[in-house]
Each structure stands twice: as structure tokens, then as C-alpha cells.
Amino acid sequence: MKKVLLTASAAALAVAASAGVAAARDQIQIVGSSTVFPFTTAVAEKLGQSGAFKTPVVESTGTGGGMKLFCAGVGEGTPDFTNASRAIKDKELASCKEAGVTPVQIKVGFDGIVLANSKAGTTVELTKEQIFKALAKNVEVDGKVVANPYMTWADIDSALPADKIEVLGPPPTSGTRDAFVELVMEEACQEAVEAANEKACAEIREDGVYVEAGENDNLIVQKLEANPKAFGVFGFSFLDQNADKLQGATVEGVEPTFENIASGDYGVSRSLFIYAKKEHVGVIPGMEEFIAEYTSEAAWGPEGYLADKGLIPLPEADRATQADEAKALKGMGS
Amino acid sequence: MTDTTLSTGPASPDGLHTGDAAKMRLRARYAAEARFKWLGAGAVALAGFFLLLLLSTIVTKALPAFQQHYVMLEVDLSADKIDPADPRAANFLGLVHDGLGNEFPQVSGRQERRLLRGLVSTGAGVVLREEIEADPAMLGGTHRIAVPLDDFADLYLKGLLAKSGPSQRIADVRVSGAGDEVALGFADDAIMAMARGAGAVEGEGGGLRLTSGSQSFLLRIAGGTVKITELSSREAGGAVGKGTVLELLERSVETPADATLRTIETAEADRKITDREIVWLDRLAGAGKIENRWNTLFFFTGASREPELAGIWGAVVGSALTMVVTLALSFPIGVAAAIYLEEFATRNRLTNLIEVNINNLAAVPSIVFGLLGLAVFLNWFSLPRSAPLVGGMVLALMTLPTIIIAARAALRAVPPSIREAALGIGASKVQTVFHHVLPLAMPGIMTGTIIGMAQALGETAPLLMIGMVAFIVDIPGGFTDAATVLPVQIFMWADFPEPAFQQKTSAAILILLGFLVIMNAIAVVLRKRFERRW
């Protein structure tokens, strides 16, 4: 027994020591946004299936967390790509530069954010202003900024159902929430609210009407099924995959469909990006092939496998320029 | 009081124990005992009920994931399709699609073909390639090959996507016209009532329209299928209607013929599979070309974004590798620390401080160990990210306090007489501990280790920081390969939008439970072997 124990622990320590001088990494590492995660993983799997390279490891760290890891420096210990559900911020780009990292930006497609409810519920048509009135912490009533008094949809507009407002959505840590706030709440913000406090536009009510349902969008889908009067805020791909159970509310008269988001008619959509580390190309095997796979028509085209997963493709001309720039490895700020 | 009893002689025990008050007290005591017994039994029953409820929901949800439907296709592997000199370069998925296309020669048009291709998994090409690699002799001929169906087709065949109504015979149906739209004639208008019951919309002039929001009426006649779209009664009796041809009729139906009406109760708009796909699948199933197989892919492949290809083996291997590292580090170190603290260390302020800190460590939230792992193992030792080695080391840190505390308790429980006897016949302190005390304490130490390891097996939080919460397809081959573990796989599958992943999630939970049972069984067997009685 004693001998077995000693050998086992000695072996473990030996492995630990030898791993310290790890061989050159031959597997791509990708971090970043959970919104882009389902698409990047699909591309990673395709690259692995080709048989020439190991399948890249994709982590879902959130856009901000991904940028931090990505911009930490150059070397095997740092990731080669990061997913982002927004463009890189100036501050992040500066920190990247400082660490000697040149990011190559590739815009891969769009994602729509939808307000959806169960098919058993009523179909509604909303404007951004109505959504703002339903969800903002402070709203303007009779020229005064007050805590949001609206409790039913009919309070906002008599044309809407007289049901209690109940919206399940992502918590503040989520990129979907950031985008939703930016594209709906801030855009439809009432002047009086903005004048009173600049940050008030981004504040979502905390009186139990808006329920933070966690990062797991599947959970929101299940809760909506159980409660036909509730609405949920999540990415289009979840509406797409659950089209048999859910219906999306029209926003500003536009239905959240694949075509409407692709054409830009649907107002609540954002661009999705991946960033490649230029310094790692040629060092970590497979990076160029990964970019080529991601930017191929078979992947990000209107009939590619990413569209099946819910990614809304870029217009054709944009795809061509993005693919060219990606292949040329056009670094940012260089 | 005492005086009076004294004056009347010694208190009669009967008076104290048989009086009315005494009987009441006795009854109250018995009642309390009975109550406690019932409450205890109730608590056990409640716990058992919830356990049963939990297990039965997981098992019923998981069962569909253990099977997968395959379609048998004739695939042409001749030299002009696959270059025998370089078979890897062939378009394997294209070959599978061609094989499927040959089953349905009448399907034309780009959209329709795309829909048909969607019936087989996008991983079918990889399955074909692997089969050819395993048996290169297949090259050069046409072979019958089983490829997995797409997740939605598979869910439909499992009956989880659409509810089928009963099929019934309808006599004397006429079909006239050619092309995609045909006119229908029915001998009696019973079908009108059926359509009304199926949610058809009333149109102008008493007609009915069957839309994507109502049930689907699929009419099988003359070897083809027509979907009824419009119906109206005829004054002369019977009914007429219009239909869309979903599957080409083999012959025209000039004279009235018998037909079979198949209803799909779930409206087309409410399901992720179209009537056309259902017709194709029914045709394949009718021809015996669809097989429901034991889902070997689930057990023996790594993760995937396609539910029909996703497997658990990568996570099982990752968990096993991680647990090996955890055990190899935490068990010897933990037991050694416990022996030193319990048997050799002198009691002073320092050992007291260590003891308090070990107890505190056992209560530290597990994510903190992940942060420590990130700072020390990844950033300082520069060990690889996402590796089971680092995961095992982090989990070993987390498990150590549990093992030390359990081992110390086990050592303390060994009767002092054993030590004294050993010392008495001249054994040294080390001999006493290793020959007598430790073997006797081993069963208790093992129990503590099982608890610690079981805890470590279910952890995801500490692994988040060191990159093991990731999408990893390749099955890890060693301690430094990228790997993930079972609970992470469960978490990730629960998060994917495809509905078929819900069953996979439950199935993965069952695998995790199975893994735990096996791990514990090994520990129990070992414990039985080492157990000594005195």
C-alpha cells in the first residue's frame, strides 16, 4: 500500500514537473463572448473534422474577459482568437498594443435581440418607446421624472393587452443585456429622463417586473413556455431554434425574422466579431485555415452551416471585403 | 412535603408510578416516542420520494438520447467519386447527399434539395470517412452505409417533435391535374367535418382552408402523397378540394381509388419539421431504410455542436484523468499530514494554528481555489491551460482539507490500547503507526477520501478559471492535453439552443452518476480488503 502511494505521488509530481517545459502548442485557443461561442465552436469542429489540425479549444469567457486574456501578450500561454459581441474598445486596443498584440478584426455576422413570448400568448407589436416605458427604472409622466409606474402593458398603450408586464432577461454581466440597453433603452430614452441623470437611460427597473433569469437562455425559453404572459429577452438563435414554441414581438413594425435582421430592417441587432492575434499566425498551426474556414461561403454564407445555427450573415459585398481583409491579416492600427 | 411522606412511611412506588398523573406522563412519553418515530420515517420517506422523483425525471428525459436513428443509403464509392490514391480529399458529405438524392429522384429544385439534404446529419461525411478508413476494401463499389439522421429528423421519429393522429382509409378519391397543384374529389363530405375539427379556416362560399396553423391532412394515394389545402362541399354530394403534391404520384387517378389519410395533429407552424420532410421520413421508414440503433456515438465520441454527433467520452476521459491527478496528490499528502498532526506533532500554538486553518480551508468556496490555480499554476508555473493536470492539482487543493480532517478523525478512533501494545513489545513510533494504527484507520480514511473525491468530481467553478470550461472536441490522450470534465459538459449542453441537447443533458447526468457509483464501488471494495477488526 505504502509503495503504491509513493509511486503514484512520485509519478504525479514527475508529470507536473515535465509539463512545466511544455512542448510548442499545436492547438488553437479561443476565448471570448458567449454569444459568438455557438458559431465559433461549429467552425472549430469543422476544422478538426478536416483531420489536418487538432480541434481548437473554445472557451466562453464573455467579451470583456476574452479581451483581457487576448490582450495579455504574445506567447503560447495566451489565446489566439477572441470572440466579441461588440467591436474592440479603444482602451482595449491600447492595452493590446502595449502588450505587443496586433488584433485582426473580422466581422462575422449579425445577431438580433428579440423580445419573445410563448405561442400560447398574444402576439404584440411594440415600439422601442413602449419597451422603454415598460422596462426603464425611471420614466417621464406628465413632465416629471418618476419611478416607473406602469404595471400592465395596457397602462402604456391601450392597444396592448391588459396583462401584467413580466419580462425575463439577462443580468447586467451579459453582453446581450449591454446590447439591448444600447439599442433599445438608450435609443428610446425620454429627454426628461436623460436630462435628470445621464446614466438613468441605461437603468432597468428593479421592482420585480424585469426578472434577471441568468445567462442561460434555455432557462428563459422554458419559463416562457410555462408562463404565456411573460416575455423574454434573448438572442435570435434561441427564437430560431424554438420557433415551434415561441413568437417574437415586432419592434417598430418589423418582425424579428432572419431576412429582416440580415437586411438591417429589424432595429435591435448588433454585429459579431472575432479577433485574431497576428503575431501567432504561422506559429500556432492552423490559424490561417481557421480564418479561411470561418470566412468561407459554406460557413458564414446565407446557406452556410452558421446560418443554420442562427448567425445572420453579412451582406454579400461585406462578406467579400471582410474575407479579403482577414486573409491579408490586416492588423488594427498598423 | 418530605415530612408528610416520611411520617406516613416510605413512599409507595405504586403511588409514584401508577397514579393518574403518572399514567398521563407515561402516555405522553410514549406518544412523543411514537411521534418521533413517525416523523423520522416521514423524513426518510420524503427524501426517498424526492430522490425517486429526481431520478425518474432524469431517466425518462435521458432515455431518447441513448438511441439514434440511422438511414441506410446506397453510397457510390467508385473511383470517379473517390480517388483511391487520395481518399481523404473526397467530398464525403456530398457522396452521402448523392445517395439520399437517389432515393428521391423526383425531388428537384434547389430549396427542396436543400431541405432533403438537411435530413441527414452534417457529420454524415465524417461517419462515412471513418468507415472507409476502417475498411479501405470498400472503395470502388456501391455500398449500403448507415449514416445518422439530423437531430430534428431523429426527434420526429422518436415522437418528440410532432403528434401524429390516426391514419384512416378514405374510399373513392379522385385526383386530377398535373404539376404541384392538383384538384381532389371525395365521394362523401365526412372529410369536411374532420377538417373543421382540425382547425381549418372558413373561407368564402363555405369552403375550408387548411393552413400552416391547422392540422396537416396528408392523403396517400397511388404511391404518392398530396397535402390537402382547400375543401368545399358539393351540392351533388361529396366534396372537392385542392392539394399540394408533396410526393409525386406514380400514376394518375382517373377512376376513383382508395386513399389513406394521415393527420399530423401538431400544426406545421408549431413544429420544426415540415410536412414534406415528414413524408420523406415516412417513405424511408416504410421502405425499412431507417434503423433505430443504440447510440454508440454518444458513448464513444467527443463533444460536438451537432446534437446527433455529440458524445460524452471526451468528458469521461477528462474526468478520469483529472481524478487520477487529484487522488495521486491529495491522498498521500492528506494522509501524511494527518498522521504527522495526529501522531507525531507536539501540541503547541503552531500546530493549533495549522489545525484551525485546515478546518477553515474546508469551508472556502471552491472558486477561490480556481483563482489560486490561475495565479500559481498557470501564470507562475506556466502550465498549459485547460489541462487535466492543472484541473487535478486545483481540485487536489480543494480536497486536501476534507481528507486531512477525515483521516485525523479515523486515526483518533483507533483505540490507544493498540498503540500501547505495539510500543510495549518494543515497536518504534513509526512502526506502531504504519504497522498498526494506519491499517486500522484505513477504512475511515477511505470513506473521507470518497467524500472528497465525489465532491471534486462534481465541481465546475474552480475549473472555470483555468480554462477547463470550454468546448473541446478531441478526446484527451494525456494529462497535458486540453480536456473538460463531466459536470462542465452537462452545463454546456444545457446551454446550447438545439432542443435535442436537452435529452443529451439528462443522459450526461446519468453518466456522471454512473461514474460516481463506479468510483465509490472501487473504494468500497478496497475498504473491504483493508478492513481489520479487533
Automatic annotation (TrEMBL), chain A:
InterPro entries: PBP_domain, Phosphate_ABC_transporter
Endpoints of the signal sequence: 1-23
Keyword Manganese: no
Ranges where the PBP domain occurs: 18-297
Key words, A-Z: Signal
Pfam families per UniProt: PBP_like_2
Gene3D superfamilies the record matches: Periplasmic binding protein-like II
Protein name according to UniProt: Phosphate ABC transporter substrate-binding protein
Lineage: Bacteria, Pseudomonadati, Pseudomonadota, Alphaproteobacteria, Hyphomicrobiales
